[in-house]
Amino acid sequence: MACALLVAFALGPPHLSAQVSSARLIHVTVTDPLGRSVIGLDQDRFEVLRSAAACSITDFAGADSPMMLAIVSETQSSDLAALLRSEDELIQTRSLADAVQRLSASKKPRKVIVTTATSGAEMIPGSIQVVQANRADLAGAVDELGKLHQYLLWVKCSTSSANLNVVLDRPLGLPPLNLTWK
Questions:
Q1: How do strand 89-93 and strand 67-72 relate by DSSP bridges?
Q2: Is 70 exposed, middle or buried (0-12, 13-18, 19+ CB in 10 A)?
Q3: Largest CB tally within 10 Å, which of 13, 60, 74, 139?
Q4: What pLDDT is recorded for position 26?
């Protein structure tokens, strides 16, 4: 028998102004009791509620979904391509604006920027995940990719309440799982 895990989430002031519309992207992380990432869950395991009304999940991507990765740095690195799978794409550029433009045009479900820039983050849309890198350790920042939210849920809600509940229908045989998201 499947068990539902209900987690409540209230938008804080920084997110409220950016999320006025009824459509939004939710970045979700699922971990087991030991803090290990749980991947491989399907969209039908997730339900998003806003003020007890169901929201439609219009699109879904998991950690195993194809990714477009943009590295924004003054120096180019040839060893980063080895970290990607064949279905992933890599952009290396010196311009944050160029990276945002190219990622926004991409059809890949997961979009990530690794940047050493300390300014300009306000130009990055919420649909693009960001990893802040140290100029001296760009390769170390790429290791952070494994810590990104594993699931991306694009949802549309008919109500305008700021309170969200995410429900996970836990697969049989798994221990209780933890959900975090933003």
A1: parallel
A2: buried
A3: 60
A4: 87
Domain range annotation of the chain = 3-62+150-181, 67-147
pLDDT tens, position by position, 71-82 = 888 777 666 666
> What's 175's DSSP letter?
P
- DSSP annotation of 172 reads T
**3-class SS of residue 118:** coil
pTM above 0.70, yes or no: no
Q: Which residues face 169 on adjacent strands? A: 4
User: How much is the pLDDT for 47?
Assistant: 93
Q: Are 55 and 33 in contact (CB under 8 A)?
A: no
Query: 136 to each of 140, 141, 162, how far by Cα in Å?
Result: 9, 10, 40
Structure tokens, 75 = 């120096």
Q: What is the DSSP annotation of 9-70?
A: EE--HHHHGGG-SSEEEEEEEEE-TTS-B-----GGGEEEEETTEEEEEEEEE-TTS-EEEE
The listed CATH number (3.30.300, 1.10.1740, 3.10.620, 3.40.50) that belongs to domain 67-147: 3.40.50
